[in-house]
Amino acid sequence: MSEPVFSHDRDVETGVAPLAPREFLRWTWRQLTSMRTALILLFLLALGAVPGSVIPQDAVDALKSAQWREAHPSLTPIWEKLGLFHVYSSVWFTAIYILLMVSLVGCILPRTRVYFKAMRARPPRTPRNLTRLPEYRTFTTDQEPDVVLARARAALSGYRIDDHEGSLAAERGYLREAGNLVFHISVLIVLVGFATGSLFGYKGGVIVVTGGQFANVASQYDEFAPGSLFNIKNLAPFSFKITDFDVKFITQGREAGMAQDFSAGVDYRTGVDGALRHTRIAVNHPLSIQGAKVYLIGHGYAPNVTVRDADGTVAYSGPVVFTPEDATFRSTGVIKVPDARPTQLGFRGEFYPTYAFTMATGPFSAFPDDKNPALSMLVYAGNLGMDSGVPQSVYALDMKGLKPVRKDNKAMRVDLTLGQTVTLPNGLGSVTFDGVSRFVKLQVSHNPSGWVALLGMIMALVGLLGSLFIKPRRVWVAVRREGGRTLVDVAGLDRSSGGTLPEQIDALAAHLEENKA
Amino acid sequence: MTHSQFELLSNQAIAVCGTFYFLALLAHLAEWALGRTVPLDAVGATASSQAVAGGTDTLVAVEESTERMERWGRIGVILTVVAAGMQFVAVASRGLAADPIRVPWGNMYEFTMTGTLVVTLVYLGLYRKYKLSWLSPVVTGFVLITLMADVLLLYTPVVPLRDALQSPWLIIHVVAAITATGAFTIGGMASILYLVKERWLERQAAGKETSARAGYLARLPGLVELDRLAYRTHAFAFPVWTFAALIAGPIWAQSAWGRYWGWDPKEVWAFITWVVYAAYLHARATAGWKGRAAAIIALIGLATLWFNFIGINFFFGSGSMHSYA
Ligand code: HEM
Predict the structure, then answer these.
(1) Which pTM was predicted?
(2) Which residue of A has its CA nearest to B242?
């Protein structure tokens, strides 16, 4: 194995930590920026990334991590202390990669200086004793010494060549180290790109029922995560309406029930009073609008329900978003009817797009498409608690002021198929299942420096290719007259691993020996 | 041909291809079994009489079995080429079997089929240049077993591509990922053989390995050559992996899901693989980590790679947005 371009002699002198503070600092720095430390930090980084793939992460799937916490009440506080629900922003993970970055900078800076000197350097003089080099060939020929050297010079194209008395020294691959530096610097650029992207950008999620509108202001988002340096006033003023939604499900094979194609029609307007335009968005086809992108990332059902109260007036009518629970689109949701008289009404239950039932499983959805939609909900009456001033989730009932409505001494469950109406007991009113709408889950994101990270990654790749495939190599050819003939020595030194130096020196020697003159 | 005929063709081609790999493996086993009767330096151009004591009779016998050994090796390689051809037919007709026609990388069955094809192609491509006859039984055995597992455990009827998979970046990302996986796998084989050979040499030096027969291990290239082959394949695979996992993948994720990187389990493990292989490259440049330690790191990298390829789907199932892959 051959040595790397710059020998890492620092790695050798590990030794014991000195006690004087100055020396100790220098020693620490040297330890931190040694190759061995870089290696260990890389391992720690890999190891540290593992728990985040095993334990549900808040930032990846908040619902799942909440469920996990519920299922593991004793582990949860410990896990929380260790930051295991947000591994990639936890103190210890950050510490590992910051240390790695410091080590990287400590590695790059001195090397850059050395490199700039080395880049302008001339090939080292021909060593006195070429036989000591790893690759060495010798032969005699009738060609004149000058001719041999001239032919060697022509054969070594791409080399930086110095002529000496009776020999020449050639070197190539000066850019390998540059590639290596570009690679390591680019790793820093990628990180900077990531960091600034999340500082100056924003990301928001919103659910819109087909036919519904959205305007790009913070209050319209269901979830909104601005970067800490993003000014909410800078949200681009656009708006759109979801006109329709189209989905096709795979009907056979292991992927049966997966959506093969889904897309939503969008009427959008840039600015406050731009022209209205129409487009379709789908997975892989977002809408780009004023620096932001609107992605279609999910969909589901919003059953249309009409609730009449005691005296028959319509207290609620419209679609209600039910969130899908699994791949069959069994969905859960709640309906709140604050306008119902004499008491407010609440419903909580499930929606099945293709209702099916067996004794063993109970009700379930046999297929994700709405082939046989049904609603099954428990009914509550009392106070919904919506005017307490505390904002409420639209997906949960505040049970404090509510009592289950009972019928035949059991909590009442209303089961509705499409078009059906059920009358509630005690003159509370009635509920009708009018139809099914779809909703789309959209993600709006604005990442002003995403391209920085990407550019960094591409630079990293280019640097890496240079660093791996440029072969730094030195070749010397020496000639002298001996007994009326010319004695030629060819020698070479490979300065990277995995080279093909022996073959190359063979070829060069053979080429020079072959007498064309 | 109709779509379902192509599906049938693919299934038949994969069966035929498996048979050919099996025959190739047998041929290579025969080659190495014969090798036990051939002195180490009798193979190829270096065949010389000086190694053989015992007169011309022995010499003739040795020459005969050397020839037979080389013949079995050639037969094995030819069978492997045929197998690879059938495998290509099987992969291509998976794509033609779908309606509409698509790239044949929609599920794990197809990924595994294509990945093993890349392993074979890398091996065949380097066979001459690096004199890889010693790698033949390992490659044919590995591909045969993996394909069998693929057909028995992962078979899926042809279905159209899921929506997230319908993007030109799919082709770019997946081609790069499969290529890197194939090359890393070959590199890993060289690293395993490095460790085995190193141990064998140590045992021999300690006098524990007294068998003088010219077995398989004795015929493996030296440690330096094994290490160099491992390095070359890793040095090829690493930038390809960088491109697949850290450039094409994020670009695709950005257009499909609206984020470049989301620490989804599949992404986490792609990152882990990348970091471990970066550590491999560093280890080779660090005193005290060369050779043995580097080979072990390469194998850890290979384990994370295959775990990501297969394990994530089984252990995390629906937890990953990538679980189809
Ligand atoms: C984010 C962390 C890092 C990554 C991803 C990384 C990645 C890489 C890769 C892929 C190579 C291989 C290129 C080649 O073989 O020429 C390499 C080489 C190298 N790295 Fe790093 N590196 C990191 C941190 C560091 C640090 C902290 C140091 C300083 C101690 C360092 C020093 C080196 C050196 C000196 C080489 C050249 C090795 C040789 O000449 O073969 N790297 N690095």
Answers:
(1) 0.81
(2) A461
